[in-house]
Design brief:
This protein is mainly alpha-helical and 129 residues long. The protein has a single domain (25-120), classed as Arc Repressor Mutant, subunit A (Orthogonal Bundle). The protein contains 6 helices and 4 strands. It has helices at residues 25-34, 44-51, 57-64, 96-104, 117-120, 124-127; strands at residues 42-43, 79-80, 109-110, 113-114. The strands form 2 sheets. A two-stranded parallel sheet has the order 1-2. A two-stranded antiparallel sheet has the order 3-4. Helix 1 packs across helix 2, helix 1 (25-34) packs across helix 3 (57-64) and helix 2 packs across helix 3 (57-64). The model is unreliable at 1-22 (pLDDT under 50). The protein binds a DNA duplex (13 and 13 nucleotides) through residues 24-26, 43-45, 48, 53-65, 67, 76, 79-82, 86-91.
Amino acid sequence: MPIKKPASQPKLKGLRPSGKRDQSFFELVYEVARQIPPGRVTSYGAIAACLGTKLSARMVGWAMNGSDKVKPTVPAHRVVNRVGLLSGKIHFKPPEKMEQLLKKEGVLVKNDTVVNFKEKFWDPAESLI
DNA sequence: ACCATGACTAGAA
DNA sequence: CTTCTAGCCATGG
């Protein structure tokens, strides 16, 4: 049946100025990423969902591509994919820097994957509520 | 304006 | 379990 699926309407509850996207999508991503507490990690999809476009997790990752050019520093090492895999480690100056930073914060990484990812997972929506 | 890219995700085979 | 397909959307050439 041609029943159209009800498009989700998160659209950011408290975040995002009155429909005014002064800041690029990237800035928004950086802002959320910076709020990830130490010792915690989150996924691209979670950040994207927090921004209202959970289907555009790719944008989040891409935004991180220039995270090192943004100030203040963006803890991109706390952002992993949905299974806890350090998919973005290859983009770090030394790729091992990512797991190194995580380990230093108390996040164990085994085989490029965050251990106890489910427990370490931090939902941006909880903080930006 | 069109086409290609991308640190993703969900679902199907 | 692995592998593939398709959707998604912002940025750049």
